TrEMBL record:
Encoding gene per record: Cfap47_5
Protein's GO biological process: sperm axoneme assembly
CFAP47-like immunoglobulin-like domain boundaries: 82-225
Source organism: Rissa tridactyla (Black-legged kittiwake)
InterPro entries for this protein: Ig_CFAP47
One GO term describing the cellular component: cilium
A Pfam short name: Ig_CFAP47
The protein's name: CFA47 protein
Amino acid sequence: FYFTGTRLAPKGKLDIPVLFMPDTMKMYEAVVVIHVMRENGENWPYEDSAELNKDLKRSVTVAENGGIQGILWIYPVHGIPEAPQQKLVPAVIRCRARQRVERRVEVLLTGVVPGATAMPTARNSAMVNTNNPANIQEEVQVTDGFSTTVEFLYELQYQSNEIKSQLGALVGMHLIQRERDTESGIVTLIFNIVFAPNKPMRNEAALVVQCTTGGVWKFPMLFIAMEPEVDDVINIEAVGLNKESIVSFKLTSQTR
């Protein structure tokens, strides 16, 4: 799309609307180019020098008389589609405080292959299906983090830095199984989630899976830490009315 004839006052602001309506789970790239010229048609003075930055030379249009006819601002735009998640049920991980549990979480990624489904959907569950379909043949490459260029990347995201500081050190995640259905193109990822809370809590998080071609899937998760079990029962026997009874016990600190 091209928009011409827009006048901008000195120190004025220009809003440029960008509309993104993806139909497949892949990244789309575009470039927004702003070309500014003087309203009176005059050129800016310009001296071609070997010391002039190459990036600056690419950002101006030079007229025949040697002046700067226009200035360019180039903004790359990446459109990354995200699968809808309104109807997803959170995968709930429950554990008593000061204990440790391991749960398997299965997520389905649809729309990975363009044209495989009309509109990508997703589902997650805390259960594992051990009966693998016969038409699942190939594996997909996955890594933990967003730094390397492989087929899929994943991480846990938290609603705030405060929740991240509370939950980040208590939760571990590891991919244990990955499969692709060659007929439907649906990718199944199975994660092993370790939860070792140190106190009662209830926090939400999101398992984010990103395809290197651009698609993003988010799966809600809920971590619930219940009250810990009673450590011990202290019995104090009375020795008589209005007399003190004393019992001693040891407490060991787990930190300094």
